[in-house]
Specification:
The protein has a domain of 127 residues: Sandwich (Immunoglobulin-like). Helix content is 14%, strand content 29%. Strands 5-4-7-8 form a 4-stranded antiparallel sheet, with no helix packed on it. A 3-stranded antiparallel sheet has the order 1-3-6, with no helix packed on it. It has a two-stranded parallel sheet with strand order 2-9.
Length: 204
């Protein structure tokens, strides 16, 4: 009896750990578009010819796998004076299979989001309507946005590809990247260079 209870307890604990880990990765938890999903972006014509691949084995479905590989801010240390920075988000299809050319999707950028990590369908401060043809098998694509930081502090940046789960993927739990920390500094500052200057309390 005790062994049975122990085994059940271990299985329950394992299930909780898996669910928590999935939530921490911004797990999709579904292969269907989220409720109230944005319509798929309009395709840019003409579309290339495409034939759905066949599975080489039942264990490996012939599906794409979209991820975010990088979030870059230029300049890397922005100053707080209404300076416009460029944010580059690199998305990639790390599968050997293309996305169906008609199956477009959305990607989002988040700056200090209220929910971290971002979840499916969570709106970002910037959204990109993405074409499936941008990320062929093994290919990357850079999404670009401009942003103005309005406070002197360290910001937390996240990005999500296929935010609304329009694309059926081999792994639905790896679409979120973050946090990438960006320190925003003041345009002018007082620096204490000697012990005497510190005693004078100039910064106060």
């Amino acid at each position: 009896m005790k062994r049975t209870l122990l085994a059940v307890s271990c299985l329950a604990l394992l299930l909780v750990v898996v669910l928590v880990a999935g939530a921490g990765l911004g797990a999709a938890q579904t292969s269907q578009p989220v409720k109230d999903a944005r319509p798929t972006p309009t395709p840019i014509l003409p579309l290339p010819e495409w034939t759905a691949p066949e599975a080489s084995s039942p264990e490996i479905p012939p599906l794409p796998d979209l991820i975010v590989t990088a979030i870059e801010v230029v300049p890397a240390s922005p100053v707080i004076r209404g300076e416009t920075v460029t944010i580059r988000v690199t998305i990639k299809n790390q599968s050997v299979y293309d996305v169906d050319p008609t199956n477009n999707f959305w990607s989002d950028l988040y700056v200090d989001p209220g929910v971290q990590p971002p979840q499916l369908g969570q709106d970002g401060v910037h959204e990109w309507p993405c074409q499936a043809t941008w990320v062929g098998a093994g290919e990357s694509f850079v999404l670009v946005a401009e942003y103005v930081f309005d406070d002197v502090k360290t910001y937390s940046l996240w990005a999500q590809v296929d935010t609304d789960a329009h694309v059926l993927e081999s792994n639905e739990n790896n679409n979120v990247l973050g946090p990438v920390l960006v320190q925003v500094v003041a345009a002018n500052k007082i620096v204490h260079q000697t012990h005497e200057e510190f005693q004078l309390g100039m910064a106060s």
